[in-house]
Amino acid sequence: MEITGLPLPATALVTGAATGIGAAIADRLARHGLDLVLVARDAVRLESAARRLRAEHGVEVLVVPLDLALPDAPARLSGALAEAGRTVDVLVNNAGAAAVGAVADADPARTGELIDVNARAVAALTALFLPAMVDRGRGAIVNVASTAAYSPAPYNAAYGASKAFVLSFTQAVWEETRDTGVRVVAVSPGPVRTPMNPRAGRGKRRPEQVADTVLAALRSRRPALVDGRVNTVQAFVFSRLLPVRAATRVAGAFFRKSASRAASAAPGERAGSA
User: Fold this and answer.
1) What span, in angstroms and rounded, lies between the C-alpha atoms of 36 and 90?
2) Which DSSP state fits 190?
3) For the chain, which ranges sit under pLDDT 50?
4) 155 is catalytic
5) Is 91 helix (H, G, I), strand (E, B) or coil?
6) Which of 13, 47, 135, 167 is deepest in the core (most CB within 10 A)?
7) Which residue out of 150, 155, 159, 174 is catalytically annotated?
8) What is the rounded distance in angstroms from the CA atom of residue 137 to the CA atom of residue 128?
9) 75-112, pLDDT tens digit by residue?
């Protein structure tokens, strides 16, 4: 098919698919005729999304409520797919967690959970589904990173570092697989209006725009794309032009303000990656 080179029927697995970017990506893939496996913690929202996708696009949708922070999450997911007789042709690692604030003020357990969802689960699920794709000589993996991956991110340190891992990991796997017929790419959004980032103001990107960038990434041959022209320029400046110390200070000033605004708000539910 057009976006992945895969013949239909094909199945895409999208994590963090209940709301935000993940839900938008699932919708775009369903429009192109792919059946879906939706993964997130919120079973109620997953079922609601599945009903809508079935009704609007006529695709098959399997719902797997699962907390990807759990060490046995990949095994549980593999078991659910085997029981349902599903093969994954496209993997979209979108689920993410964020927690702004100084590391000295952070809850160690929450920091570990963030890293488990943002980094460990991405690597584990990629390693889980990639071998079969390579054996078949076709397939695609999209790992959602962030513009925060392009420089150190004071007051958002664990998030930025976890997304830097996703970006580096994906670029390395792209090189390993570029002659296998499997498409591997990282997509890096900036601030997006999602349940994880409800305070994103006017002018910020919408989940649907990020989903369109994901489809464009699947059509391209590049190992990584940044969502949006402004974000693309920003990532280039921060990673290529500014000295690391200067980039770190600028990023720190931005995230310090975000941390201050979030200090009085209730912690948000883990949702799609921003």
Assistant:
1) 9
2) -
3) 266-274
4) no
5) strand
6) 13
7) 159
8) 16
9) 999 999 999 999 999 999 999 999 999 999 999 999 99
Q: Rounded distance, CA 130 to CA 182, Å?
A: 8
Domain around 194: 11-267
* 109 within a domain of the structure (yes/no): yes
Amino acid at residue number 273: S
Q: Count of CB atoms within 10 A of residue 222's CB? A: 11
DSSP letter at 24 equals H
DSSP of 31-81: HTT-EEEEEES-HHHHHHHHHHHHHHH---EEEEE--TTSTTHHHHHHHHH
Q: Is residue 247 a part of any domain in this protein?
A: yes
Contacts of 249 (CB under 8 A, 6+ apart): none
In terms of Cα–Cα distance, which of 133, 102, 95, 131 is closest to 116?
A: 95
Q: Tokens 């429009």 sit at which residue?
A: 31
Convert the pLDDT of each residue in 13-53 to its tens digit.
Answer: 999 999 999 999 999 999 999 999 999 999 999 999 999 99
Query: Beta strand 90-93 with 139-144: parallel, antiparallel or unpaired?
Result: parallel
Q: Is residue 238 assigned to a domain?
A: yes
Pairing of strands 139-144, 95-96: unpaired
Phi and psi at residue 184, to the nearest 5°: -125, 130
CATH (domain of 160): 3.40.50.720
Amino acid at 200: A
Token pair of 44, please?
A: 């109620």
Residue 82 is assigned to a structural domain of this protein: yes
Whether the CB-CB separation of 36 and 26 falls below 8 Å is answered with yes
15, 40 contact by CB (below 8 A): yes
Length of the chain as a residue count: 274
Domain count, the chain: 1
